[in-house]
Design a protein that fits this description.
Blueprint lengths: L27 H26 L2 H11 L4 H7 L8 E5 L1 E2 L6 E2 L1 H13 L2 E3 L2 H5 L10 E8 L8 E4 L2 E4 L4 H11 L8 E4 L10 H10 L3 E4 L12 H18 L7 E3 L11 H4 E3 L2 E3 L3 E3 L22 E2 L12 H10 L13 E4 L16 E4 L1
Parallel strand pairs: 1-5, 1-14, 2-3, 4-5, 5-8, 8-9, 10-13, 15-16
Antiparallel strand pairs: 6-7, 11-12
Helix pairs in contact: 1-2, 4-6
Length: 370
C-alpha cells in the first residue's frame, strides 16, 4: 500500500421511482439526533434561566450551541471535513475478475459501505463541495466506466421488460428500496456501446437521468488521450457528447473518466475546448487509481486530476490499494477520513488541520474549527 500518512494526489414505462418509507432503525444517526434533541432541551432550560437572571453574554453562547453540534459532539464523532473521500471505480458486473465484480460481491460492497457509515453523493456534488451527509457519516462516490451491458440490462419477466436484478442498476435499485438513506447514485462514463440492447438505449439513458444518476464522458474509441494530438482529443470528447445528445438533447456532461487515466498533453481542452460547434466544459476529470481523493476544500484538491479507488476483490488486490484496503485503513485511521458535521453550509475541521484548508475554495461556506 502506498504511504497513507499523506494525501495522494423496467417495464419500459416504469415511472420515476418513489422513495419507500424508511424503516425505523436505531442507527448512529438516531443516537446523534437524540443527543442533539436532548442538548436542545437542556439549552432551552438554560436560556430560560439565564434570561430571567440577565446573563446576556452567556445567553448568546447558549443559543449558539443550538445551531449545530457542540465541541464534545464534534470530538466524539471525529468530524473532519477535510478528510479523504473515496471515488470508487467499477467496470463490469459479471464474473469476478480484475475489472469485474459479481452481482453478489457488488451487493456486499454496498452492504459493507452502509454498515461502516458511508453514504452516497453524486460526483457533481462532491466537486462543487455540496456535500449533504448527516453528521458522523462519510460521503462516497460511485462511478462506472465503459457502459458495459452488465451495468444496465433489461430482461423479460411475465411479458414485461424489467431491469435485470443481476446487473449493476438492478443491484443498486434493490439496495435503494431497502436502504433509502444510503441515497444511492452513480455516474456512468459511457462508450458507444451504451449498455447494449440498441432498441432500449434511449429508455436507459432517460431512466438514468430521471432517477438521479449522471452520464459522463469516456470518449468514442477509448484512446490514451496523452498519446494523440489535440484534434483527435477534441474529436473523441465531442463525439461522445454528440452521441449522448442523440438520445437526450441538450444533456450537459460535467465530467470525464480519462481512458487509461491518460491526460491530454493540452489539459485546457477538457475545460475550454471546442470542435464542430460543440463545446467541451468539464468540471472534473477522473484518473484510474489508486487513492482516495482530497476533500473539496483541501489544498491538494484538483478537480481535473481526481484519483479513484478500484473496486476489486481483496484476493486480487496485489497493490493493497482497492476498496477494502482503504476501508480498513480508515477504520484504523479515522482521523484521515472525511466525516460530516451534518451542515452543508459549514466546513468543520479540527484546529490542528486548519493549515490544510484552502480558504479560497470555501465559496459561501463558513469555516468552523474545534
Amino acid at each position: 500500500m502506498q504511504d497513507r500518512g499523506v494525501f495522494m494526489t423496467e417495464d419500459m414505462n416504469r415511472p420515476v421511482r418513489r422513495r419507500p418509507r424508511q424503516r425505523v432503525r436505531l442507527t448512529r444517526r438516531f443516537y446523534v439526533a437524540a443527543g442533539v434533541l436532548g442538548l436542545a432541551i437542556l439549552v432551552i432550560i438554560l436560556v430560560a434561566t439565564l434570561a430571567s437572571s440577565g446573563g446576556g453574554g452567556d445567553l448568546q453562547d447558549a443559543v449558539a450551541i443550538v445551531g449545530g453540534l457542540n465541541e464534545a459532539q464534534l470530538n466524539q464523532l471525529r468530524v473532519n471535513e477535510q478528510g479523504a473521500v473515496m471515488v470508487l471505480e467499477y467496470h463490469r458486473i459479471a464474473e469476478e475478475g480484475r475489472w469485474s465484480r459479481t452481482p453478489e460481491n457488488f451487493r456486499s460492497d454496498l452492504d459493507f459501505l452502509y454498515e461502516e457509515g458511508y453514504r452516497c453523493i453524486g460526483l457533481d456534488d462532491y466537486v462543487s463541495n455540496n456535500i449533504n451527509v448527516e453528521a458522523g457519516y462519510t460521503p462516497v462516490v460511485l462511478t462506472f466506466d465503459d457502459s458495459d451491458p452488465s451495468q444496465f440490462r433489461y430482461v423479460e419477466e411475465d411479458g414485461k421488460m424489467v431491469i435485470d436484478p443481476r446487473c449493476a442498476m438492478g443491484v443498486m435499485e434493490q439496495f435503494d428500496e431497502e436502504y433509502p438513506d444510503f441515497n444511492i447514485t452513480a455516474t456512468f462514463y459511457v462508450l458507444p456501446t451504451l449498455f447494449g440492447q440498441d432498441e432500449y438505449i434511449e429508455e436507459k439513458l432517460a431512466y438514468l437521468v430521471d432517477n438521479g444518476y449522471d452520464i459522463g464522458n469516456h470518449t468514442i474509441n477509448h484512446p490514451s488521450l496523452g498519446e494523440v494530438d489535440d484534434e483527435t482529443v477534441l474529436e473523441e470528447l465531442t463525439g461522445n457528447i454528440s452521441l449522448v445528445r442523440e438520445y437526450i438533447p441538450e444533456y450537459e456532461q460535467k465530467s470525464i473518466a480519462l481512458p487509461n487515466g491518460s491526460e491530454p498533453k493540452n489539459p485546457s481542452l477538457l475545460t475550454s475546448g471546442s470542435y464542430n460547434g460543440i463545446d467541451v466544459k468539464f468540471e472534473a476529470s477522473l484518473l484510474v487509481g489508486a487513492n482516495p481523493a482530497p476533500a473539496p476544500c483541501n489544498c491538494d484538491f484538483d478537480p481535473l486530476r481526481l484519483p479513484r479507488v478500484q473496486a476489486l476483490d481483496p484476493s486480487l488486490d496485489t497493490g493493497d490499494c482497492g476498496i477494502y484496503a482503504w476501508i480498513q485503513y480508515f477504520m484504523e485511521n479515522p482521523e484521515r477520513r472525511y466525516c460530516s458535521d451534518g451542515n452543508p453550509a459549514v466546513v468543520t475541521v479540527p484546529k490542528h488541520m486548519i493549515d490544510r484548508i484552502d480558504q479560497s475554495k470555501l465559496g459561501d461556506k463558513e469555516l468552523r474549527t474545534y
